Amino acid sequence: MTKFFVSSVLGLASLHGVMAAPKVYPEVIPGPGMPSLVELNTTTTELYEMGLPEGRDESTMFGTPTFEPRCGPAEYAYTKVDHIISCYNYLRKLGSRTCTAEENTVLCTAGEAHVYGVAWNGHTSSRCDNVAKAVLWAIDNCTRKDKTCAGAQAVPGNENMAAGATHIRW
After folding, report:
1. For the chain, N or C: smaller number of CB within 10 Å?
2. Span of the secretion signal (predicted)?
3. pLDDT at 140 > cutoff 60
């Protein structure tokens, strides 16, 4: 009887491990006119679980005469860095495709975070992987100990464009 009881408990415990629900992430939503996740053959889960690249080269990160990189700028601009990272991964997956920005254009939203592009001359575009590099600057330089982040940086190679990441209500 004791053997049966122990076997049953162990069986139920292993069944619980098998039936554990997968982690659910807030949906990654491309900005208006941006390619869908289906077009990129990716999923929200994949974008969240990719994390950040190893061995990042920040030598391409720079301010321009028209924009100095910044964190914040206000407390309520900060949001969970994991949401920003998922949008960074989305932009990075777009590679050499073009990201276009007007005065303030949302490129990606995830959870309570959005990543946006700003055109100083009213309209500009850059390679999306370069826009991702500007977002990575914010992740690397503006993430606080509580794992929240907000910041913006010039897009490498385009002095007329900056990209940033903040809370969606900012």
Report:
1. N
2. 1-20
3. yes
